[in-house]
Amino acid sequence: MQTARQGTEMHAHNHKTDEQEKSVKVCLVGNPNVGKSAIFGLLTGRYVTVSNYPGTTVEVTRGGMTIDKGSFLIVDTPGVNSIMPMSEDEKVTRDILLDEKASAVIHVADAKNMKRSLSLTLQIIETGLPVVLDLNMKDEAHSRGIGINEAELRKILGIDTVSTIAVEKKGLGALKKAMTTPKISTFNFSYDNTIEEYIKKIEPLLPDANISKRSISLMLLSGDETLKNWLHKNISPENIRIIESLRNNAAALYPMPLSYVINRQRLAVVDNMLLKILTKSESPARGFSVILSEAATHPLMGFVYLLLVLYGLYLFVGKLGAGVLVDLIEDGVFGQYLNPWAEKIVTAVVPVKFIQELIIGPYGVITMALTYAIAIILPITATFFIAFAILEDSGYLPRLAAMLNKIFTTYCAGHSVFDTARRNLRHVRQTAYGGIYCVAVSNKRRDNTCRFSRGKNHPRPKG
Ligand SMILES: Nc1nc2c(ncn2[C@@H]2O[C@H](COP(=O)(O)OP(=O)(O)O)[C@@H](O)[C@H]2O)c(=O)[nH]1
Ligand SMILES: [Mg+2]
User: Which residue has a Cα nearest atom 19 of ligand 1?
Assistant: First the structure.
C-alpha cells in the first residue's frame, strides 16, 4: 500500500482556508467532457473557489462538501487523456496528483467509451491512490446498447464502481457512499520483461512521493520532460543522470517511442478486460441524437455536417447579427431616434461649437463612438458568442476533432493529431473568435474597408 506521502511540497494555494485544510481531499479525474464538472457541481453545490493553478492559465475549481459529518474537499481537475502530460491541462492534473496529498481519486468515466476510460483507470490505479470508478453517462451508454458487467469489473479491479447520470442527478447516493471508503486497487498488470526490468531499476532512485514510484518510473520511461522540475527538487543530480541514461538505454531497445510501446501494452490489458465486462445488445435503441452524433464523426458525412454548421454560423452571425440586427439598431434606433435627439439637445444646451462637434460631430462620442460600439460591435459579438456557446455545449467540437482525427490518421501514419488539436484548441478558439468577428465587421462596413487591420484603412478583399 502506498501510504508514504511525504517528500513533496504542496503548492501554495491562495484560497486555502482552515476548513479546506482539515478536510479529506478527493480529486475528480477523467477524460475531457465526461461530466466531471457536472458531478463536481452536484457534490459541492454552490460554494466553490476557482483559481488558476500556480504558474499556469489553467483554472482549477475546488469546493467543500460533507458526508455524515465528514468534510471533504473536492478538486475538479482539467480533463486528461493520459496521466503522462501532453498539454498544460494534463500537466496540471498530473501535478495535482503528484504535489497535493489527495486521499482518493474519483475517476469520472464515460460509460459509452470504456476502452478510453479504462486506459485512464489503469494509469490512475498505477499511481497507487485509492480510486472509485464512476461510470457516468450511463444514459448514453444505454441508448447505444452498451452494457457493462459492473460486478465483474469490480472483481477484476478490486475497487468500488458506481453508475451515474449526472444530468439527471442519478447515482449520487452510491457515489457518496463509495467515496467515504475508497479502495486501493488489487489489480496488478505488467508490461513486457524489459520495461518491468527498467521500472525496477528506476524505482529505487526515486524518493517517496504522493503517487507510486512505479507510476513515476513509467512517466520517466515514457520520456516525460515535464517532470524535470520535480526531479531537480527531489533527486540528486547524480541519480538524475543515472535515470536519464537508463531511459535512453531502454528507448534504444525499441523501434517505436517508449511512450507508444507502454500505451499499446496497457491498451492490450484493457482490450482483454473489455472482453469480460462489455455486453452489447443486438438492437440498440438508436435515438435521433445517436444518428446525429455518428454522422458528425463520419469522415464523409462529417464534412457535409461541418459545411452545414459553418453555413448556419454564417446565417446567424453574418446575416442576422451583422446584417439585420446592425441595420435595425444603427439606422433605426440610432439613425432615426437617438442621434437626432442628441443633436437637438446638444445644440440647444452646449454653446461652444468645438464641444458640440466632440459629442455629435462625424467623430463624436455619441454619433460615432456609441453608435459603433452599440449598433455595430454589440450585435455581432453577441450573436457570435451565443453561436459559439451553443456549439461548445452541444458537444459538436469534440466530434469535429474526432472526425478530423479519423481523416488525418489516414495520412499521418497512425499518429494521432487529436492531442495536438486539443492542445491548440484554446488558440484555435481565440483565432476563430478574432477571424469570424473581423469578417463580420468588415462585411458590415459600407465603405468597403476593414478598419481592424493595423489601424489603417485597407481595401476589403473582393468576393
Ligand atoms: N447525457 C448525459 N450527458 C452528461 C452527463 N454528465 C454530463 N453530461 C454532459 O456532458 C457535457 C460535459 O460535461 P462536463 O461536466 O462539462 O464535463 P467535463 O469536461 O468532464 O467537466 C455537458 O454538456 C454535460 O451536460 C450524463 O450523465 N449524461
Ligand atoms: Mg470540466
Answer: 33
Q: From ligand 2's centre to the CA of 59, what distance in Å?
A: 10
Residues near 158 by beta carbon (within 8 Å), at least 6 away in sequence: 183, 185, 186, 187
List alpha helices for 183-257, DSSP H. 193-202, 213-221, 228-234, 237-252
Q: Which residue has the cell 481592424?
A: 452
Among the bound ligands, the one closest to the CA of 32: 1
Closest approach atom of ligand 1 to CA 30: 20
Rounded-to-integer distance, Cα 400 and Cα 297, Å: 6
- DSSP letter at 298 equals S
Report the C-alpha dihedral over residues 361, 367, 368, 372, rounded to 10 degrees. -170
Whether residue 13 is predicted with pLDDT greater than 50 in this model: the reply is: no
Which one of 28, 33, 394 would you pick to mutate in the ligand 1 pocket, going by the greatest count of ligand atoms within 8 A of its CB?
33
Dihedral of CA atoms 350, 355, 359, 364 in degrees, nearest 10, equals 150
Whether 4 shows a pLDDT value over 50: the answer reads: no
Read off the pLDDT of residues 369-405 as tens digits, 9 standing for 90 and up.
998 999 989 999 999 999 988 988 788 888 888 888 8
CA–centroid distance, 46 to ligand 2, in Å, is 15
Cβ of 38 below 6 Å from ligand 1: yes
Asked if 146 and 137 touch (Cβ cutoff 8 Å), the reply is no
The pTM of this model reads 0.67
Rounded to whole angstroms, the Cα distance separating 300 from 289 reads 18
Amino acid identity for residue 344 in this structure: K
Contact 264, 82 (CB under 8 A): no
- Using DSSP's 3-state secondary structure scheme, residue 176 falls into helix
CA 117 to chain centre: 15
Contact 404, 421 (CB under 8 A): yes
Q: CB-hemisphere CA count at 13 Å for 144?
A: 20
The average pLDDT across 188-216 equals 96
Q: Tell me if residue 26 falls in helix, strand or coil.
A: strand
From the CA of 188, how far away is ligand 1's center (Å)? 31
Instruction: Name the grid cell of 337.
Output: 431616434
Domains of the chain and any CATH numbers: 18-180 (3.40.50.300), 193-280 (1.10.287.1770), 294-459 (no CATH)
Contact predicate 164/170, CB 8 Å = yes
